[in-house]
Amino acid sequence: MNRKAGEGPGAVDADTAAAGLALPDDDGRLILVKELHGHSGCHLLLLRERDCDAYRVRKISGSAGYDARLRDQRHKQGEMAVLGLPCPAVLKDGLLEGGDLAGRYCFDMEYVRGQNLGEVLEHGDSALFDTVARSLAATLRGLAATASGCLPASLFLDKIAAVAAAVPPCLEGGNDPDGMLEAIGGTAARLAAHDWSGIPASQGHGDMTVENVLRRPDGGLCFIDFLDGPLNSCWLDVAKLHQDLRGHWFLRNLPDEQWSGPRGRGLRIAAAKLAALLHGHTHPLWPDLRERLPVLTQFQLFRIVPYCRSDEVLAFVLRRIRDIDKDATFP
Q1: Name one GO molecular function term (predicted).
Q2: For the domain that residue 251 is a member of, what is the CATH number?
């Protein structure tokens, strides 16, 4: 979910019932403004209260099979709010009635204006990056306070094996001219050979990418698009951030000429600065994380493999995993 500062809602004269996107108690009070864009496969709608200038986001399951996962996400968002993690308030949930999506699960939440951290990296400066790093560290310390024991190593090994066994959409039908299935298998073997013990089990965001962290106009951070599952750890949240900051996942769609040009170089330098600042603020809390972070970041990148829909994106992910092995400056 990406809600940019200055993304002005433009009203359209259709309530949610007329658009076939209503919950039973909408009662004609909510006007559909527009569809927002995101990466989860869910439908994201910007809604406005008919009688006032108040906005909300309705997140609708992308398929009937995704309903349970979206329910878990809504539940987790509520749990994170109770822990004090800044995130959009959940307003209500239920099943849609009428229209093509009737029966789909959805929930409404507060609409948050802000820039995601990818945009902050492009337009910010060192002073701003330090402020952001301090805020991220404070959030991570709050999650660390919930730690209880360690995650079983088998969870990591099982996930690595599951990713290796899956065929990415771009390679379905036997299409593998560059031998990427072999590269996936080799990457899985190298990851599985690492020690996966000692990773703290704690509450965690689950998908703390730069796209899922917003900086509000008042400078505060807001976290969106939580992901629930068995691999919950504050360390994995740090690794997810490094998936972008050092693995450069957020730059995957940058054209080659921009990647090698001033824009790409500037973004990579900015991301490295934020990573270094974040490390400075979290190292006293987790001195053992430094040596584990490169492999945890590779693990997070590897989890993307089953969702790659183009050869280019899959090749990018596998290349970035290899590059981390050669990066003496990490983190």
Answers
A1: transferase activity
A2: 3.90.1200.10
The encoded tokens of residue 36 equal 């927002």
Looking at residue 177, what is its pLDDT?
79
Q: Split the chain (331 residues) into runs of 10 and give each run's mean pLDDT.
A: 41 75 90 83 91 92 93 94 94 92 95 96 92 97 96 98 96 88 98 98 97 96 94 97 98 95 97 96 94 97 96 96 89 71
Domains: count for the chain? 2
In 10 A of CB 123, how many CB atoms? 9
Residues 319, 259: one domain? yes
